[in-house]
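User: Can you model how zinc ion sits in this protein?
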Amino acid sequence: MTPHFYPLPPRKTLHLRHLEALNNRCTTLSTTLEEKLGRELAGYLGEASLPYYLEISSISTHYDLYGLRLNLNGNKFQMDGLYLFEGFFLITEVKNFKNKILLNEANQLIQLQEEGSEEVFDNPLTQVELQKEQLIQLLDKHGYPTIPIETLVVFTHKKVHLTFNHPDLITSQQLPARLKRITQKYPTKLLQRNELYHLGRKLISLHEERGSAFINPNDKIFPKIKRGVFCNRCKPMIMRRIYGSWECPKCKKRNSLAHLAALEDFYYLFGHTITNRQARWFLCMDSVYTPSRLLQSLGMKRSGITKNARYDLSSLFKR
Ligand SMILES: [Zn+2]
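Assistant: Here's the modeled complex, given as structure tokens:
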């Protein structure tokens, strides 16, 4: 079997990371934030489950790009999955819904909840068809030849119950067989492996990650954020800085690198750079000098000097 490329694997968005950091740092999240976190996480888990089904389809040579976000004439469009095969491309839209799913006569998608309520969504096929149109235009703009593009909506939740039979709205379990049939439709190789590789690299270079909003002191949630270096056993117990290490006052466990997890939360909550003052505040340190020594020891890029020095956390947490 030919090895597959995973140049842009499924990964958590900055927005999901932000919500996870909030969840880690706040005792309670508002219902809205909790729902957002649940939705984002479900989306990620759905996307992360797809490579397995692609792999077991045993179709050789494809180049898989997850979460690619491209700019077409100022409008951004994002595809959950884009798979480049030698004879065609495939765009997938992932839905991690559970329970009963219906398609009504107006071509809307209805999700029935266990407690009997229902939620209405636009048909995701319309969404993925639009992405196809945008991708065609973008490829044309960059001088690539026309290649057939297929679209599929994949329901990834183990407990989804589809009440319809539609070739392009399928469960993950149906994906390998569906993919085989699509592949048989396109026996002609339109692109060579190296061309696929170059196109893949090109698309990755055009990828624009969606930024995430950061918290500022005027935000309502700001006072709810718990600062300090957490003990990972006794969270939200805060560790104390003792003799160049961190110690938990409760379980007495020591960890000299415990500040890294706290700095990661800071990175996703407040921004990609940190000053000595911010570090002192967020890590709850008494000393003026220790935060500065700590930040310097991590070998981050620094701009500005002394009191105004800013450290670039991206080098530590870049995904
Ligand atoms: Zn502890």
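A couple of observations from the model: The pocket of zinc ion is lined by residues 231, 233-234, 237, 248, 250-251, 253 (CB under 6 Å). The chain has nine helices and 16 strands.
User: Helpful, thanks.
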